[in-house]
């Protein structure tokens, strides 16, 4: 069966269709995404789970990351969330995920930690919402992740890699693995995609392609 590759716009359109036309709540899609990522982190041989750092943006990619942190915590894996930005400016779903994480007393830090303390990093900074070059503080965070020895699991896309064309948008996370939602992404099928996305897993999270009204093909 041929693999389907999509763009960021298609990904966002399929999400919207599944939520708004079919009626699956965004938090359900986010939970299914997080379950797929957590499952891969636990079952892959790539990751030493002694101490995990989830680096989360304030968009829904970050929301996925916060949900992954909670799932790892429930799996008795030590995990810390490094939240990049103001919690009050986070998306509705990400704020809800942070409130949930608070109930489990999962530490949420704002300042860069000593990266040498962590054995695995989860890249939940930007996904298909990346819309411009990464600069300033965000670029410094990407550099810190790449300088660390820990293996990296990227959620949906390695932060900084263009979803549609695999262009490096200022800088890019060097991921060991990527779990991308619903369909593979055109940017992951490029030389940069292979180099910075690492091993790619496509997670079926119940997103439907409105054009074919069928489940994900493969
Ligand atoms: N229900 C759903 O929509 C699901 C989405 N999933 C996950 O959501 C992300 C896409 O989330 P979104 O909030 O649209 O965008 P990001 O989190 O990727 O980016 C956040 C935000 O950041 C801003 N931004 C973009 N580029 C830059 C930059 N270079 N510097 C600073 N800020 C930037 C921009 O405003 C973005 O909106 C998707 O990847 C999935 O991980 C779920 O997985 C499934 C359900
Ligand atoms: K990411």
From TrEMBL:
Residues the record lists as binding (6S)-NADPHX: 60-64, 127-133, 156
Reaction it catalyzes: (6R)-NADPHX = (6S)-NADPHX; (6R)-NADHX = (6S)-NADHX
- Under Enzyme Commission nomenclature, its number is 5.1.99.6
Note the InterPro entries from the entry: YjeF_N_dom, YjeF_N_dom_sf, YJEFN_prot_NAXE-like
Q: What Pfam families does its record include? A: YjeF_N
Q: What positions does the domain YjeF N-terminal occupy?
A: 11-213
The coiled-coil segments of this chain are none
Could you list this entry's UniProt keywords, alphabetically sorted. Answer: Isomerase, Metal-binding, NAD, NADP, Nucleotide-binding, Potassium
Q: What class of enzyme is it?
A: isomerase
Gene3D superfamilies registered for this protein in UniProt? YjeF N-terminal domain
Its cofactor is: K(+)
> What binding details are noted for the cofactor?
Binds 1 potassium ion per subunit.
- Cite the GO molecular-function annotations of the record: metal ion binding; NAD(P)HX epimerase activity; nucleotide binding
Which top-level group of life is the source organism from?
Answer: Bacteria
Q: Which residues bind K(+)?
A: 61, 123, 159
Family to which the UniProt record says this protein belongs: Belongs to the NnrE/AIBP family.
Function of this protein?
A: Catalyzes the epimerization of the S- and R-forms of NAD(P)HX, a damaged form of NAD(P)H that is a result of enzymatic or heat-dependent hydration. This is a prerequisite for the S-specific NAD(P)H-hydrate dehydratase to allow the repair of both epimers of NAD(P)HX.
Protein name per Swiss-Prot or TrEMBL: NAD(P)H-hydrate epimerase
Q: Specify the species.
A: Furfurilactobacillus rossiae DSM 15814
Species classification: Bacteria, Bacillati, Bacillota, Bacilli, Lactobacillales
